[in-house]
Design a protein that fits this description.
The complex is a heterodimer.
Chain A: H1 16-28, H2 30-56, E1 58-59, E2 62-63, H3 64-95, H4 98-103, H5 109-137, H6 146-170, H7 175-191, H8 203-210, H9 213-225, H10 234-259
Antiparallel strand pairs in A: 1-2
Chain B: E1 8-17, E2 20-30, E3 35-39, H1 46-53, E4 61-66, E5 69-71, H2 75-79, E6 82-85, H3 97-107, H4 112-125, H5 141-152, E7 159-163, H6 171-186, E8 190-195, H7 198-204, E9 207-212, E10 215-220, H8 222-229, E11 233-238, H9 240-247, E12 255-259, E13 262-267, H10 271-278, E14 284-289, H11 292-300
Parallel strand pairs in B: 3-8, 3-9, 6-7, 7-8
Antiparallel strand pairs in B: 1-2, 1-4, 4-5, 9-10, 11-13, 11-14, 12-13
Classes of the chains: A mainly alpha, B alpha/beta.
Chain lengths: 261, 308
C-alpha cells in the first residue's frame, strides 16, 4: 500500500525474496565480481604500501603498508556498498523496471528499499571478506580480531548503502553518480585518515573529518585489523549510526516521493 | 450489475496530475469469470486505473475493492490473488525463462515445491518449453509477452489485470496470445483487459467500457453497443475524385464522415447507395457491417492525440 511519504520505515518479511533475487544474479557473476573488488585495493596496497612504504617507514608506530591496509579495507567496503546502491540499484529501479514488476506482486516499496540497502551491505561484506583473506595471505594481518572487524564492516556497508540510496532516489541518469564519486567519495577518502593520519591536516579540516562517516569507520576498523581495541568506540559508532539511520530515512522518503507522485 | 459480489468494484475513482484529470469519476465492476475490456485512446487513463487497483498510485477520490478487500489498506492480501501483465515487458534480463518464473513465485511467498510444480506447466502454457533456459534477450516479442503472461499466473490468480497485452505483436503472436487468454477465461479466471485493438476487444470481452479523458463514455456488450450507438452498415468509398462524387450522395445515408481520401457512409439500409455507386465508373467501395472501431471513432473522435 502507499504509505504517507514521511512515515517511519515499514519493511515487512517480504523483503527477503528481493534480496534472494539479487543474490541469484550475483551468483552468476560472483567470481569476476569479487576478483574485481579485490584487484583494485590490492593494486593500491602494492603500489602505495610497498612503494611509498619504503620511503615513509612507520606511521603511528605501524609499518606503512599495515597502516594503509587497515584503513583502506574500510574504504573498499564503503565503495562496494556505494557502487551497488547507486549504479546497480538504479538499473533495477529505473532501467530494467525490476522494482515495478516486484511491486505488482505483494511486495511494497518499503520492502524493496530495505532489501536494496541490505543487499548492498551484503555485497560489500563479500568483497571485504575477500580482501581480508588477501591480508592474511600477504601476512599483513594475522590477528584473530579480524573476525570482529567483519560485523563492523557490515554496518559500514549499511551506512554507505543508505547514504547512496538517497542519491539513487534523486538520480535522473547514471551521470549523476559520477559527481557523487568525484565530489563526495573521493574527497572523503582523502580526509578520513586512510592514507595519512588526520592530525597532519589543519585543525578546521580535522573538525570536518571527525564528522565524516568514513573517518568513523577507519577509527573503528583499523585497530581491529592490526589486533588492537579501538581507543574510542561510542563516538565513532554514534557517527555511523546517525548517518545510517538518517540516510536510510531520507532515502526512503525520497524514493517514496519518486514512486508515489 | 446482477452479480452480488464482484471480484473488482471501483466507485467514483478520480485522479488528477497537475490539475489534468487522468481518471475522472470512474466506476466499474468485474464479475467472476468475466472479461471486461477497457478501451480508450492513449492517455485515456487506462494504465492509471490499473495502477490504482494495485495500490501503486493514490486516488484523489473514490474507492476500490478487490475480492471485497479495500484497496490500498489490504492490497497485499488482494495482490496475492491478482496477476498483472504490464504494457511494457519488465522481465528480469539476467534470468532464464524458468528462473524468471521461479523468482517471481518467491515474491508471492509460494513454497518451493509448489513453484517447482507450476514452472514447467506455465512454460508449456506459454509455449516456451524449449526456451526454459534462454534469457529474455533471446526471445521474440511474442515469446516475451507470453512469458510475462506466464509469470502473472505463477500465483494462480483469480483476477488478471492485462494492460495492452498484445501491443506490438505480429498477427501470429497476437492470435496465440488470444487463444491463451480464451483458455484462461474457460478456466474461470476473470480478466480486466485494456486495449486499443477493437478486434481484440470484440473477440475476448464479454463487456466493454469506453473511456476517454479518464471518463466513462459508453458501456455494454460489443454487439449491444454497436446496435445502440451505430447504424448497422458501413460503406467506405475510396479515392481522390470518388470522395467528392460520393459526398453528393450523402442524403442516402444517416451519417457521413470523411477521413483523408476515404468517405464513411453510416446507414441502416445500404441498397440504394450501393446501386448508385455501382453505376459510377472508377469508384472503389466496400460494404461491411458496423464494428467496434466505428463505435470507438464515433465516441472518441478521429483526431490524433497529442500523447499518441
Amino acid at each position: 500500500m502507499y504509505i504517507p511519504i514521511y512515515a517511519t520505515p515499514r519493511p515487512s518479511r517480504r523483503f527477503w525474496p528481493v534480496v534472494q533475487r539479487n543474490l541469484l544474479v550475483w551468483k552468476k557473476l560472483a567470481v569476476p565480481s569479487v576478483l574485481g573488488n579485490i584487484a583494485e585495493p590490492l593494486i593500491t596496497l602494492i603500489a602505495f604500501g610497498y612503494g611509498l612504504g619504503t620511503l615513509i617507514g612507520e606511521v603511528q608506530g605501524l609499518p606503512y603498508i599495515e597502516f594503509l591496509a587497515s584503513g583502506s579495507i574500510a574504504v573498499s567496503g564503503a565503495l562496494a556498498a556505494t557502487f551497488e546502491a547507486l549504479y546497480s540499484a538504479y538499473s533495477r529501479m529505473q532501467v530494467q523496471k525490476t522494482w515495478d514488476s516486484i511491486m505488482n506482486a505483494p511486495i511494497a516499496l518499503d520492502d524493496i528499499v530495505f532489501a536494496e540497502m541490505l543487499w548492498a551491505a551484503m555485497k560489500s561484506l563479500f568483497s571485504v571478506a575477500a580482501i581480508m583473506l588477501v591480508l592474511v595471505a600477504l601476512d599483513i594481518s594475522r590477528s584473530p580480531m579480524l573476525i570482529l572487524a567483519l560485523p563492523l564492516l557490515g554496518f559500514v556497508g549499511v551506512t554507505f548503502a543508505s547514504i547512496a540510496l538517497v542519491f539513487n532516489a534523486l538520480a535522473k541518469g547514471y551521470d549523476f553518480f559520477t559527481y557523487y564519486f568525484t565530489l563526495v567519495m573521493t574527497p572523503m577518502t582523502f580526509l578520513s585518515g586512510v592514507y595519512f593520519p588526520i592530525e597532519q591536516m589543519p585543525l578546521w579540516l580535522q573538525r570536518v573529518a571527525n564528522v565524516l562517516p568514513l573517518t568513523a569507520a577507519v577509527e573503528l576498523v583499523r585497530p581491529l585489523v592490526i589486533g588492537q581495541w579501538p581507543a574510542e568506540v561510542l563516538r565513532p559508532l554514534a557517527v555511523l549510526v546517525v548517518y545510517a539511520a538518517g540516510g536510510y530515512y531520507l532515502a526512503l522518503v525520497l524514493t517514496r516521493r519518486r514512486f508515489y507522485r | 450489475m446482477s452479480n452480488p459480489s464482484p471480484l473488482l468494484r471501483i466507485r467514483g475513482l478520480t485522479k488528477a496530475y497537475a490539475g489534468h484529470p487522468a481518471v475522472d469519476d470512474l466506476s466499474l465492476e468485474i464479475a467472476p469469470g468475466e472479461c471486461l475490456g477497457v478501451i480508450g485512446p492513449n492517455g485515456a487513463g487506462k494504465t492509471t486505473t490499473i495502477r490504482m487497483c494495485l495500490g501503486l498510485v493514490a486516488p484523489d477520490a473514490g474507492t476500490i475493492e478487490a475480492f471485497g478487500l479495500p484497496i490500498p489498506s489490504r492490497v497485499r492480501e488482494a495482490k496475492q490473488r491478482i496477476g498483472v501483465v504490464t504494457q511494457f515487458d519488465s522481465l528480469d534480463p539476467d534470468f532464464t525463462c524458468a528462473e524468471n518464473l521461479r523468482v517471481y513465485g518467491r515474491y508471492f511467498g509460494l513454497p518451493r515445491p509448489l513453484i517447482d510444480e507450476r514452472v514447467p506447466r506455465l512454460l508449456e502454457f506459454a509455449a516456451l518449453q524449449s526456451k526454459a533456459h534462454a534469457i529474455p534477450a533471446e526471445l521474440s516479442g511474442g515469446m516475451k509477452r507470453r512469458l510475462s503472461l506466464g509469470r502473472a499466473l505463477i500465483n494462480d490468480p483469480d483476477l488478471l489485470l492485462l494492460d495492452e497485452p498484445t501491443t506490438g505483436l505480429d498477427p501470429q503472436a497476437r492470435h496465440l496470445m488470444w487463444e491463451r487468454l480464451k483458455n484462461l477465461l474457460q478456466r474461470g479466471k476473470s480478466i480486466l483487459l485494456t486495449t486499443h485493438f477493437m478486434d481484440e476487444a470484440e473477440r475476448l470481452c464479454d463487456r466493454l467500457l469506453v473511456i476517454d479523458h479518464g471518463r466513462k463514455i459508453a458501456e455494454g456488450t460489443p454487439r449491444g453497443m454497436i446496435a445502440q450507438h451505430l447504424e448497422s452498415d458501413v460503406v467506405e468509398v475510396y479515392g481522390e475524385g470518388a470522395a467528392a462524387t460520393a459526398r453528393s450522395h450523402a442524403a442516402l445515408a444517416e451519417r457521413v464522415e470523411t477521413s483523408g481520401e476515404t468517405v464513411f457512409f453510416y446507414l441502416r439500409d445500404a441498397r440504394a447507395l450501393l446501386r448508385v455507386l455501382s453505376q459510377e465508373p472508377g469508384v472503389r467501395y466496400l460494404h461491411r457491417p458496423a464494428n467496434l472501431e466505428d463505435l470507438f471513432l464515433k465516441l472518441t473522435g478521429r483526431q490524433i492525440r497529442d500523447d499518441a
